[in-house]
Amino acid sequence: QVQLVESGGGLVQTGGSLGLSCVVSGSGSEYYSIAWFRQAPGKEREGVACIDSGSGRTIYGASVRGRFTISRDNAKNTVYLHMDNLTPEDTAVYSCAAAIFPTILKSGMDYWGKGTRVTVSS
Length: 122
Known about the structure:
Largest sheet: 7 strands, mixed
Number of strands: 11
Strand content: over 45%
Distance between the termini: 40 Å
Helix content: under 10%
């Protein structure tokens, strides 16, 4: 069983930056790829970014590529999502999830965190 706990959400103005953290714990958690997803009101959950457990290879969704950066500190069992140049369209609940293989497809996830809310004001 893998547990994931997100933090760092909040309110930010358009053009601003924000960082999210996902603390990962549980048996074998170090072997899982960790992904970030987001879900805006009335919209489908969208894969944002993913980082592989070993190689550190990253995957980004098209809507965030070049603005968001995912990173991992294995010593702290934490995955980060740094978000730059935010717009109101980035407003959503952001969740991290664990998968055996690196992907930003929600069907590939085995465990989910509860999420943290990000609101970008215009």
